[in-house]
Amino acid sequence: MIDRTLVLLKPDAVQRALVGEIIQRFERTGFKVVGMKLCYASKETAGKHYADDESWLKSVGEKTKKSYEAKGIAVKEDAMSIGKRIRQQLMDFISMSPIVALVLEGHDVIGKVRVIVGDTAPNKAAPGTIRGDFAFDSYGLADTSGRPIQNLIHASDSQESAKREIGVWFKPDEIHPYQRVDEALLYRKT
Ligand SMILES: Nc1ncnc2c1ncn2[C@@H]1O[C@H](COP(=O)(O)OP(=O)(O)O)[C@@H](O)[C@H]1O
Ligand SMILES: [Mg+2]
Questions:
Q1: Could you list the pLDDT tens digit for every one of the 190 residues in the chain?
Q2: In the 8-state DSSP scheme, what is residue 120?
């Protein structure tokens, strides 16, 4: 299925001058850039993107707890309050410097982009993934430093969140559908 996904190159990617390197990885895989801009996230946009959504807050908290438990460290704080704390940190972080927002299009783009991006914790992300190749941050280092994990990228995790997140960052007329020459081979009708 041909889908679209939202990718953000977060402030750490822009500050470390990794924008070209990262976009190249999506392009060379074959995905089509249909939206792209450098922008400053207002607090309002940051708050919409990292929505105050119960299931997302819980899942962020639970992922954090699991990563500590895997190291034999018990975390008393409940998942929801971890999620709320991280959301606040992310909203501050994402609006501290310009970011690059992209809409990518292609067959199964949402899942494949997350494979290219790699694990949330760069210290666990496989070599060959963006996070594995360009970062080494961890849950522990981020938490003791009171900041979000610096993992360079946000990528939508489902069709539902992609649709919502694209709407947060792009007006309809900022997305540009076009035909690429390789599509006749890729999406040929049998
Ligand atoms: N325990 C944590 N401490 C600091 N930052 C975190 C923590 N958990 C998540 N984050 C940050 O929140 C972002 C959103 O979390 P999540 O959606 O679970 O990961 P992903 O970006 O891989 O989809 C992560 O990319 C990371 O920057
Ligand atoms: Mg996520």
A1: 899 999 999 999 999 999 999 999 999 999 999 999 999 999 999 999 999 999 999 999 999 999 999 999 999 999 999 999 999 999 999 999 999 999 999 999 999 999 999 999 999 999 999 999 999 999 999 999 999 999 999 999 999 999 999 999 999 999 999 999 999 999 877 6
A2: S
143 lines ligand 1 (CB under 6 A): yes
Q: Is 154 in the pocket of ligand 1 (CB under 6 A)?
A: yes
- Single out the residue of 13, 119, 6, 105 nearest to residue 70, CA to CA: 119
C-alpha 146 – ligand 2 centre gap (Å): 19
Residue 112 token pair: 């494949």
Backbone angles phi and psi of 163, in degrees to 5: -60, -45
Please report the DSSP string for 78-112 in residue order. -HHHHHHHHHHHHHHHHTSS-EEEEEEEEETHHHH
> Are residues 104 and 34 in contact, defined by beta-carbon separation less than 8 angstroms?
yes
Q: Residue 167: CB partners within 8 Å, gap ≥ 6? A: none
Task: For the domain made up of 2-186, give the CATH fold.
Answer: Alpha-Beta Plaits (3.30.70)
Per the CB < 8 A criterion, the answer to whether 122 and 135 are in contact is: yes
Give me 56's structure tokens. Answer: 């997302």
